[in-house]
Design brief:
The model has no long low-confidence stretch (mean pLDDT about 90). A hairpin with a 7-residue loop joins strand 4 and strand 5 (about 75-80). The termini are far apart. Strands 3-2-1-6-7 form a five-stranded parallel sheet, sandwiched between helices. A two-stranded antiparallel ribbon has the order 4-5. The chain has about 180 residues and is of the alpha/beta class. It has helices spanning about 10-20, 40-55, 80-95, 110-120, 140-150, 170-180, and strands at about 1-5, 25-35, 55-60, 70, 75-80, 100-105, 130-135. The protein has a single domain, classed as HUPs (Rossmann fold), CATH 3.40.50.620. The chain binds zinc ion. The site of zinc ion (ZN) has 9 residues, from helix 6. Zinc ion (ZN) binds next to helix 6.
């Protein structure tokens, strides 16, 4: 099987890559630059995941600034429906390279949303072939992901913190510390 790996440069992308490689999936890495504060660190980490696990690596950039003020987001700004934005861009890339599967390392209740989204895509005249979204680690907790990746050499270099420089204080940095990792 061939699939696109939506590669954010984070631990969920790495674990998804590892699990699919065990099933002999050929992975095409896709990093999407949203212009988020941590994008430079995320890009470097994504390249490392890709060079370890993927057949190739491609980068797409969202033009302009799609961020809006969002008091709930860690950095104070976010992209509305960010997961769906990523999914749409990945589906365009899937069409370009003729791949039917897109692996997304999202966790926490997205599976049904993506099933509905795939159905909705079929109504559009543009993609004649709707990709299948594989949320392989959807049901896992943070602790389970960290446990599965324990001692993996790339883990310290992967990006969790949403800020431009690792803050050391946000929930993600605190979680990393709990698992013996430096802020990043
Ligand atoms: Zn942080």
């Amino acid at each position: 099987m061939e699939a696109i790996l939506l590669n954010s440069g984070g631990k969920d992308a790495l674990l998804s890559a590892i699990l699919h490689r065990k099933q002999q999936t050929v992975l095409h890495s896709l990093f999407i630059d949203l212009g988020q504060p941590n994008v430079d660190r995320a890009r470097k980490a994504a390249e490392k995941i890709a060079s370890e696990h993927c057949a190739d690596h491609f980068e797409m950039t969202i033009p302009g600034d799609w961020f809006v003020d969002s008091p709930k987001a860690p950095s104070g700004k976010s992209i509305p429906y960010q997961a769906i934005t990523l999914a749409i861009m990945a589906s365009l890339y899937a069409r370009k390279i003729n791949v039917d599967y897109i692996i997304i390392g999202l966790r926490g209740g997205f599976k049904d949303a993506f099933a509905h989204f795939s159905e909705a895509l079929k109504c559009l005249p543009i993609p004649p072939k709707v990709p299948l979204y594989l949320l392989t680690i959807e049901g896992m907790s943070d602790d389970e992901v960290y446990t599965d990746l324990k001692d993996h050499f790339l883990l310290p270099e992967l990006v969790s913190c949403n800020f431009k420089e690792p803050c050391g204080k946000c929930l993600k940095c605190v979680d990393r510390k709990k698992h013996g990792l430096p802020p990043n």
